Prior knowledge:
This protein is of the alpha/beta class. The chain has helices at 27-35, 56-59, 80-96, 115-124, 126-131, 146-152, 154-161, and strands at residues 14-21, 43-48, 67-70, 104-108, 132-141, 165-168. Helix 6 (146-152) packs across helix 7 (154-161). The longest helix is centred in the middle third of the chain and has 17 residues, at 80-96. The chain starts with 13 loop residues before the first strand and ends with a strand. Residues 5-9 and 50-79 have low confidence and may be disordered.
Amino acid sequence: MTEAHTPPEPEEIVQTSLLTGFLGSGKTTLINALLKHPEMSETAVLVNEFGEIGLDHHLIERIDEDTVLLNAGCLCCTVRDDLARALRELFIKRVKGDVPPFTRVVIETTGLADPAPVIHTLMTDRVIANRFALDGVVTTIDGVNADIQLDRHRESVKQAAVADRIVIT
């Protein structure tokens, strides 16, 4: 009698949230608050910074091997390949057990990002789309300065336009 071969179970698709919002709108503060909840304990955070020196990753209290800093520039254009590479590497490390298990990824964009190309990468890169599922875009909006930011900065309008949820800070 031969044993039936059972194929390995497919890897669980990792739920991925995109957190965007204009400069100073409270993205990092929101991540810090969310990471304190037990249901967010298995969350990997990808932080993007614009410029030579990243600052937000120093503000996130739960910085560990599950937090990846992308500081090559704005996620909107220059580091889309870096984003895909970071997600692939994070997934491989998860499979190998090199990082603690995670069931969710939160990608925090820089305040100057156009989130549309990031969404496009998550949905159209075949390897990424088979491993990570975009479950929503959360946009933070500064309740005090929103009118000025939305009037003067196209990026803030784009960020609000693609939001599934808007958090007024």
